Amino acid sequence: GLHDRSRPRLERALERFTGLGDAVGRADTHRSLGWESEQLGDLPGALRHNQLALELFRSAGLRAPQASVLNSVGWYHALLGKHRQALSHCFEALTMLQDLGDRYGQAGTWDSIAYAYQHLGRHPHALLGYRNALSLYRELGVPYPEAETLTRLGDTHLAMGNHTSARDSWRAALVLLTALGHPDAEQVRARLRERAERRGSA
Question: What are φ and ψ of residue 114, in 5° steps?
Fold first, then answer.
């Protein structure tokens, strides 16, 4: 597949940048390899490549990519169930992104923070994080990440027993995803169907 063909090319690029002593080229390639690893379902590999990219960006003194990769490192920790480590990295990223004025990066980082809190069972903190992310995404006019955040916000409402709020969030996500023609719309429809069936059988 596509990933099978691109990975050797990225690994050759990594060797070339290493030979040239190009730390930034190496860091960018590790980020790409991290994305490839995630697509292949290798979350530990994705985390490892982003950690290597973070070290290289730090050594080069590049704050903007460093802040972005800090959030990625936090996100992969969260996906691997290491939620406290995720929060540590993401709050460090958030401070840097606020200093840099990167609102899109802040939105993504608030979403990561909320996801970690959600899975720690700290639902009020999760709601706040998701709402901060949504506010920024709406200001920026980026519907797909807004829909992703709305879906997770709905999941958090459901975990808190707020069934009406959960449905409202999922419906808002579905409107955006349907307008985009995005396949994730079906996952949101499934959530709404399941809740409707449970209400019907109650």
Answer: -65, -40
